[in-house]
TrEMBL record:
GO molecular function annotation: 4 iron, 4 sulfur cluster binding; metal ion binding; oxidoreductase activity
Ranges for region Disordered: 725-753
Basic and acidic residues composition bias: residue spans: 725-734
Transmembrane segments annotated in the record for this chain: 6-27, 69-88, 108-131, 152-174, 194-222
Keywords: 4Fe-4S, Iron, Iron-sulfur, Membrane, Metal-binding, Oxidoreductase, Transmembrane, Transmembrane helix
Protein name in the entry: Fe-S oxidoreductase
Organism annotation: Lentzea guizhouensis
Limits of the 4Fe-4S ferredoxin-type domain: 289-319, 385-417
Amino acid sequence: MTLQLVLGLVAVVVSVVAWGVFVAGVWKMIKIIRLGQPDGTRTGPFWPRLKTLVVEFVAHTRMAKFRSVAPWHWMVMWGFLIGSAVLFEAYGEVFDPRFHWPVIGTWSLWLLLVELLGLGTVVGGVALAVIRQRNHPRRADRVSRFAGSSFRSAYFVEAVVIIEGLGILLVKAFKQSSGLESAPLWTSFVTQPLASLLPAAPIWVSVMALVKLLSGMIWLVVVGRNLTMGIAWHRFSAFFNIYFKREDDGGVALGALKPMMSGGKVLDLEEADPDKDVFGVGKVEDFSWKGWLDFSTCTECGRCQSQCPAWNTGKPLSPKMVITQLRDHAFAKAPYLLAGGSRDMAGDEVGLTEDKYEDYKKRLESIDVLAMAESERPLVGGPDELGVIDPEVLWSCTTCGACVEQCPVDIEHVDHIVDMRRYQVLIESNFPTELGGMFKNLENKGNPWGQNAKDRLAWTEGLDFEVPVFEGELGDAEYLFWVGCAGAFEDRAKKTTRAVAELLHTAGVKYTVLGPEETCTGDPARRAGNEFLFQMLAQQNVEVLNAVFEDRPAGQRKIVVTCAHCFNTLANEYPQVGGTYEVVHHTQLLNKLVRERRLVPVAPVTEDVTYHDPCYLGRHNKVYEAPRELIGASGAKLREMPRHEERSMCCGAGGARMWMEERIGKRINLDRVDEALGTAPSKIATGCPFCRVMLTDGVTARQSDGQAGAHVEVVDVAQMLLESVRRGTEKADTPTDEVPTGTPLPDEDKSKV
């Protein structure tokens, strides 16, 4: 009795301290997260967000993207959630071995649930530790998704999980061996055989209950004192991060970029005040509170890293480490910010000044010297500047969205990266030199190649039918055919444009093109961070498009596009600037026409074809089936690459990388072409002109070094369908390094595409 009293008192004293430390940590974390900018778009509607939360954590829909991990994590998660009830039961068991929850404590179903929780927690914890060991960074460079993650934190959490599970099982087993609990075998299939090996000693029930409690209390203390231990804190913050995700319908933060915001409102660039408004993110406190919640929730699982094309080709960018570096910086700087500290764009102190606070000296003395030093670091800067995020990291991103697609806790990496780019471009004017020429061409000529608008119809030359051009009225045209800059000026993309036009003509689809009235949608400008230029181009296009569709009701404002980037921008981002249209990709429309028998393939393309999913068609907009069905309709045999559909590897052109040099590591397009060539295809098909350029150059490079046959070519899906519909052939693509396209850029602005 005395021993049990001592055990109980130890449990109570330790628990009071542990819970105090943990609650203090929770309160501190809440105060720190609230340092971020306001964002009122995250709070509703309530029921759709709650549904998303319940579905994601109960069914583990995000976690299940890695099927080898999902079941084990699912066991551990439920062991933590429901097992908390078993943990609190231990407070009674340390005083009285006979204690159990009133009413439910003797139910057979409850006893079975406890058995499953204990067993599942142990098995799940061990499995997760084994998975971490099997993917340890000791393996070949950049293979491990855990490279850069904290292994000490991970093993600590997994050890606590396993000890908790063992505690649950041993408490139950000792109750049975001591005759304190009687249950049928089906409710105790592990603990009953174990009990037969244990002594009849009720005191061991209290001892094991204390072990179970102490492991949990140690966990609370460690977590409460280490706010940057994301692998532990995600047990709490993940629920909030999922609920407050950008898309209230449950979608991931892909497609449209988050608008540039200031003070919790969408920033109107025409009325913005540079002295008051935030242009992108120049300091960590410029991120919204949801950004700070993202940083705090990262579990360091490395799924984003494992899918990142930049990381996998030797670039310094790891989406995981971007988030963890921002987290570490934010929490290190937090004491300075909480004390009222703030710096202007020049880096001068404007928050903690003697004339602003009566308790100025007291506030200053409360700031740790490390927090003050952290406040002086630039958010983006090279090693010499002690920057948090290196510029090479920031500009390596292709905005492909693989990181966002894979993140099990809905972190919005791309939005954060683009927000930092926005500040660098709009305020610092600090961006890769190659982008200068692209920006200038977009501003002056309305396309990134710097071509003249009058040449936008050059692709129609040689067609044996007339392409209708908009001349004030749509007439009976069902679709506006948005050709895009690449489709109008880039020689390889022109073949796609001509093929689509011919197929639409063959199917009897009424359409029209804008010709010289069309200009760039602004996608490369926006992904590069030049929000001002994007807004200018978008508003210009919306004005034209709204005039074109002036007499058409909302459901009949139809646009068909061949470029995945134009497709995404017109469909998802133009509504932000007043342009709402029904936008379809050419593969979707052509597939519909084939299904309706308005296009009938008559000459099967009896070749082996692999298909490359464009990021902005597939991952960003979930268009996977239409192009594949068209490949099947053309008669070709589809050979899937290992990375396809939602896990497709980027070609390297997105995020304005099309116009930037790739100086570090292996070229992304070569990595993707090597994967494509591994399927032994005669054709590599795609549905985006930028992908086609990158893949063609990659194939040409491999052909020149003898790693690809001369017969391999890159084509658009529309070309394959056209070849099948009419017994024609298309000339293979010619690399741009042999035949230049468009107006050459100055030497300093050239990029290898």
